[in-house]
Amino acid sequence: MMIRQRLTVVAAATALGLAVAGLAGGTAQAATAKPKPPAKSGAAASCSRARLPLPDPTCTPGAYNPAVTQATIGSTICVSGWTATVRPPASYTNALKTQQIAQYGFSDTNPADYEEDHLVPLELGGAPRDPHNLWPEPRYGSQPAQSKDQVENKLKTAVCGGRVSLAAARGAIASDWTTALSRLGL
C-alpha cells in the first residue's frame, strides 16, 4: 500500500512538473492534450466554405505568436529551421483537423485530403497551436494547399530581406493569401 501511494505521488509530481515545463516553454504542450476548437454555437457546418480556397474568417481569423515581432525576426523566423522548434506535433493537428472538418461541413471527411494549415504561417510568426490560426485546407481544387506554401515562402523572404514589414505580410496573407503577393507588390 505504501509503495502504491508513493508511486501515485511521484507520478502526480512528474505530471505537474511536465505541465509546468510545457507552460514555461510557451509552445510546448503534452502530446495528448485535446485541441480546443474555436467556440461556436451549433453543431456541424458551423464554419462556411463559401470563401474557399480561403477559410471562414469567423472561425479562422488568424493569430500571432507573441514571441515574433518586427524586432525579433532576426532571432526567430529569419533563422533557418526556427519553425521546426514551434511546429505542433501531428497528434495535435490531426485531432484538430478532424474536429474542424466537421465544423466546416466538408462532405469529404478523409483527413488525408486536407492539410491542417496555419492561416498566418509559422514562417511569418503565426500562432502554432491556436485553433483560430489553424484550419483544414483542402489538398484539392483549383488552388490546393500546396499553392499557399509558395506564397508563404516568398513573403518570408521579403520580410527577412527588409522589403516588406512583418505586419504588412501577416495582414496580406490573413486577409487573402491568393492576392497577398500582388497586394504587396511582390
UniProtKB/TrEMBL annotation:
Name of protein: HNH endonuclease
Keyword Signal tagged: yes
Keyword set, alphabetical order: Signal
Signal sequence extent: 1-30
Species of the source: Streptomyces sp. Y1
